[in-house]
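Q&A log
Question type: sequence-to-structure
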Amino acid sequence: MKKETRIAVIAGRGLRNTRVYMLTVFRGKIVEGVEFYKANSSFELSSAIALSKYYNEIRIFIVMTGKDPFINDDFYVRIAKPIILTHKLESVDKTFGLSIDEARSVLNFLVKSTFIETIEFIDKLFNEAIELLGELEFEKRG
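Response status: OK
Response body:
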């Protein structure tokens, strides 16, 4: 894999009656862009990502939350790019469009670089943003 290859990392979490996702696009070790999505189905999420300004440049999607209810066969068909489901880059939970060995090779490449430090920071930032959104929604209703 080339160092300039664009990789998209997806983090998602449930929030009330919907799921919120953050798509972070990397070009090497550099964060090229971040987008947020709200989705109620696999179709909504895949449609939003396919309309992203980064979509055509992305070569691989990595889903950091491991198993996700909206990342499934239908999502893969609509996205039409390789997807790796992993838990914090530690193990491969499932793949779409890649073999398990190819997915492990990609993850090993990313872990050996300082990419993992950036991923951990982005993951922490996303979780804090979700907590804040949850608190704001709670205050609105209360």
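Response note: The mean pLDDT is 86.
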